[in-house]
Amino acid sequence: MTKRRVVITGIGVVTPIGLNVPEFWDGLISGKNGVAPITYFDTSKFDTQFAAEVKNFNPDNYFDKKSVKD
Question: For the whole model, what pTM was predicted?
Answer without folding.
Answer: 0.66
